[in-house]
């Protein structure tokens, strides 16, 4: 079915409504989290993501900016593993940094949102938990030589199936933290934020219809690409290179090169990190 056209006023209203959903999810976790790293430092984030690609559609403005760049990869990791088997009411959880960026303290909780029996988008929450085992409390361990010495590593697993929480997963998580009360409080806060997101999305789609909201999301994505390409077109074509070094990796006293080449080609930009350690 073709995506319906959407007028600019409706588009602006829907953009604001969807941003508010993500912002309200942020606020819900900040108010309910047990640990001050989330509640006060706001080391967390929430967003709405594309149903099939996991690309970022809407992100809350109150969380850490770094999550804007990495949370889509976390959602894609869940899609890659569970996309064909996900059902309404399922919830997935993991902290594997190789699949979602950042570090192992950042626990990701991801939930599909269905409208009229069809997957419409994904909702995701990430928050920095106090402690997840490992060789040092809080998981900042300068003596660690691999990720397993930093913290417990959880791959993407199903935390809930059709709305029923798998208590076994929670038991495993709580047995691998020095602060189970804090961890369970943070998890419940994230689940509450996702519940709110589901409720608000239901209200929005009930008011405007799935076709109109889908059209707004597509239009916002197209507009972002158009604006970015227009800005790149104002820059001169060319290639520029730069490099810098980290002192070492904390294990071997050898400098680590970070090298990047930026190339502008009309309305396109290419970043080449060849030569980076």
Automatic annotation (TrEMBL):
<dbReference type="Pfam" id="PF02538">
    <property type="entry name" value="Hydantoinase_B"/>
</dbReference>
<protein>
    <submittedName>
        <fullName>Hydantoin utilization protein B</fullName>
    </submittedName>
</protein>
<dbReference type="GO" id="GO:0005829">
    <property type="term" value="C:cytosol"/>
</dbReference>
<dbReference type="InterPro" id="IPR003692">
    <property type="entry name" value="Hydantoinase_B"/>
</dbReference>
<dbReference type="InterPro" id="IPR045079">
    <property type="entry name" value="Oxoprolinase-like"/>
</dbReference>
<dbReference type="GO" id="GO:0006749">
    <property type="term" value="P:glutathione metabolic process"/>
</dbReference>
<feature type="domain" description="Hydantoinase B/oxoprolinase">
    <location>
        <begin position="7"/>
        <end position="277"/>
    </location>
</feature>
<dbReference type="GO" id="GO:0017168">
    <property type="term" value="F:5-oxoprolinase (ATP-hydrolyzing) activity"/>
</dbReference>
């Amino acid at each position: 079915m073709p995506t319906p056209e959407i007028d600019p006023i409706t588009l602006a209203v829907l953009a604001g409504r969807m941003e508010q959903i993500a912002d309200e999810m942020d606020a819900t976790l900040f108010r309910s989290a047990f640990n001050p790293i989330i509640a006060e430092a706001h080391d967390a984030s929430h967003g709405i993501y594309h149903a099939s690609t996991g690309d970022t559609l809407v992100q809350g403005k109150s969380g850490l900016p770094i999550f804007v760049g990495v949370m889509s990869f976390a959602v894609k990791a869940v899609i890659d593993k569970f996309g064909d088997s996900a059902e309404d009411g399922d919830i997935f959880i993991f902290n594997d940094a190789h699949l979602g960026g950042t570090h192992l303290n950042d626990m990701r909780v991801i939930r599909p949102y269905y409208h009229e029996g069809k997957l419409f988008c994904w909702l995701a929450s990430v928050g920095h938990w106090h402690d997840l085992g490992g060789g040092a409390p809080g998981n900042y361990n300068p003596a660690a030589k691999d990720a397993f010495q930093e913290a417990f590593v959880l791959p993407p697993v199903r935390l809930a199936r059709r709305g029923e929480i798998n208590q076994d997963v929670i038991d495993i998580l709580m047995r691998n933290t020095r602060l189970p009360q804090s961890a369970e409080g943070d998890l419940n806060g994230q689940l509450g934020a996702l519940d709110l997101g589901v409720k608000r999305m239901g209200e929005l789609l009930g008011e405007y219809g799935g076709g109109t909201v889908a059209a707004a999301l597509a239009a916002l994505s197209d507009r972002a690409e158009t604006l970015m390409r227009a800005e790149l077109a104002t820059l001169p074509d060319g290639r520029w290179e730069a490099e810098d070094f980290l002192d070492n990796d904390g294990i071997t006293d050898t400098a680590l090169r970070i090298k990047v080449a930026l190339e502008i080609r009309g309305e396109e930009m290419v970043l080449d990190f060849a030569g980076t350690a």
